């Protein structure tokens, strides 16, 4: 039966949903003949109004404190469920959060409970709603929900990840983070909020106090106590008003929040804009000072914030410590980005947090931002600043090429021929640079910013013309440069086309024993590998590697050419199943890496990660994991922690962590790598495909099948658009797809796909290759689920025996397959076989 105090709380909270002019009538009708209830509710409402329209904690608990002073905080040492209370972390609204110890796992957790004495039916519903919201969110930058239960008194509580970090603004201040570091940290916060929005959750109380940053620099979003689930469309929810309209923070509240209007994702965009403003300037956008509540509302609704650059300039003229970047760093793009997010009208803000974050990314990369008015001069200036190194490098490459061609043609022919070839190079370079300049290229009338992809495409088109008919050496070298550039962009089909042109031209130009043919032979071997002709590729590598090694010792072969050949051949041998030879080749490549050009030494970090994968293939899982971590550490020491190569290393590490079932760390590494790839690589780059495939495997193992399907579908799309089914990881993606379908009730479709994957494996690999064994295990699991036990058993048994022989009993892949086999015997009723195998787990 509802107590009088619960009734008072319920009427009070409901009254807050009404406008002031109708609130009195509502309270009068709700209280009926109970004058005592009416007086208590009226007292709470008066206290609430006197506290003002903005308070960090609702008026109810503040006013009720005198009525409930017999209820204190939980003492340290008290046990709730399997958790021992250590200390009170915070108290606000209707809840309290305690630091506790998980007695079973020995880890620190945070426990949230309803304050004693506040457990009305309405409060319990709100509490349960917060728990449901947290349960739907699983993101590395959102504090995780571990579970929920009831206390001995029957009151609900839930257990969360304990974040031992500093609030966002304190973290930035104490560590003196640079502008770039602050913006990169802000983008991680945006990623977490965007993730919540995708799951129809708006936070509604975003502020530095609700964002904690861990010691390793990872932000964690906290406190979804007043968050709201949207219905249907994630961008608007006309019926969603805030349950506690005053439970917000004035400095970060949007104008629509102050009016009690329906809130959408635009509300969080506004609050993030205020957070960004504070990160940029070290101050808040509005000087609230000693404003009354009514004045605060008016400021938020009507006053335009000062430009961040102006706020910093003004602060720098005043005394006092604080983070004050140079105003010119904020002037322009960052001013416009922050103020666009904080526009008074929700429809004029960024349409999503993702677009907001994207504009910050564009600023960091020196690209035009959406918040800045587009002009030709603005875009041209951005292009030149962004690509000054690339253009300079292209100029140097072309000039170097020009020098080499001049020297060669001088020895081979007349000065007139040399001049003609030099002029061809000059014309080619001028055409490339002119294409990027909207003032010089009148054929381009759309005025949009030229990208390096467009410049490269224009160069490729120019190469198709007959300009170089009389200069085959020049055309061959340009085909090689363009092909390599397409590979770097992830446009594999175009890369293959131009590399094939290069190989054909070089083969016609140079005799088989000519050292100048060696780079073309390396490219030919790589093309054969890419087409799936592994034996032909192996034969060619074995022919040219002795010549490359000898030429390298004599100083006639560039280190980069030998390194490329060693790396590609090592990957080929790994694919063929000879991981031992692959390991030796990778180590040989790493030994010569110090002799590579400075700008190419980052590839040693990538190859160290590939070596880690090879060690894992040999069953050396612990050494592999250590090597993968070393690759990460090397990249960080070298300042390469925001490069595609670092993303590759993170992807490899994420795969190992998934095998270890360290899903939190794995997902964080893979998510960071995906962000790097999407910023720097093309949408069909093979590294992005591999990353998404690894994410799909992790999500599948966490039983998050719909999310895994989305990631795996994109990975397969990338594979099909790049290398096709010949790519060695294409069958792995098919296996993941089959496993997901099998778990989601589509066994027949799953079986068809898994058989396709197994055939691709057996057609190109030895029968005892571990990739074949993994495909067998997946198919066996699917067939067993269809009760075809006699067909499933040999598949599962062969898979387990191969992996046990290759990797040993303790390898994660062996243990996972053994678990499948034991499950099969349990389901088939073969108790003795299951009992015999179970001790091996």
Helix content: 55-70%
Low-pLDDT segments, ≥5 res: 51-71, 231-247, 374-380, 388-416, 432-445
Give me the side-by-side strand order of the main sheet: 1-2-3-4-6-5
The secondary-structure class comes to alpha+beta
**Straight-line N-to-C gap:** 52 Å
| Tally of contiguous helical segments | 36
Strand content: 5-15%
Largest sheet: 6 strands, antiparallel
- Number of β-strand runs: 11
Radius of gyration, rounded? 32 Å
Average pLDDT for all residues: 78
Anisotropy-based shape: globular
Oligomer: single chain
What does this protein look like?
The structure is a single chain. The chain has 841 residues and is an alpha+beta fold. 61% of the residues lie in helices and 6% in strands. It has a 6-stranded antiparallel sheet, with helices on one face. The longest helix is centred in the middle third of the chain and has 25 residues, at 388-412. It is globular, with a radius of gyration of 32 Å. The two termini are 52 Å apart. Mean pLDDT is 78; it is low at 51-71, 231-247, 374-380, 388-416 and 432-445.
Tell me briefly what this model is.
The chain is an alpha+beta fold and 841 residues long. It contains 36 helices and eleven strands. The chain has a six-stranded antiparallel beta sheet, with helices on one face. Strands 7-9-10 form a three-stranded antiparallel beta sheet. A two-stranded antiparallel ribbon has the order 8-11.
Keywords:
single chain, 841 residues, alpha+beta, six-stranded antiparallel beta sheet, three-stranded antiparallel beta sheet, 36 helices
